[in-house]
Design a protein that fits this description.
Elements (H helix, E strand, L loop, with lengths): L5 H11 L4 E4 L1 H11 L7 H10 L1 H8 L1 E7 L4 E7 L3
């Protein structure tokens, strides 16, 4: 089981608190997270890896589904807050 980066998890949860869905690239997500925490400086590739390793944790603990997809030119991340 991967080690859970709780500060990263809570940062994503905070980012999603007023959103039902967010869709964008890892770079766009990094830029958004920096607006919440200006000390956040993780590389976009590492953000994607972190999200991939914590899919179940985000869903169970925070009610956030994480999905990955791609268009012709971009690799996309979709974060969706589960309906309660």
């Amino acid at each position: 089981m991967p080690e859970i980066d709780e500060p990263f998890c809570y940062l994503i949860a905070d980012f999603m608190k007023d959103k039902d869905v967010w869709n964008g690239t890892a770079t766009e997500l990094c830029n958004e997270l920096k607006t919440i925490n200006n000390n956040f400086n993780t590389d976009p590739a590492n953000v994607k890896k972190e999200l991939m390793s914590l899919l179940e944790h985000f869903n169970k603990k925070f009610g956030i589904a994480v999905e990955f997809g791609r268009t012709h030119s971009d690799k996309l991340i979709t974060l969706t807050r589960n309906k309660k």
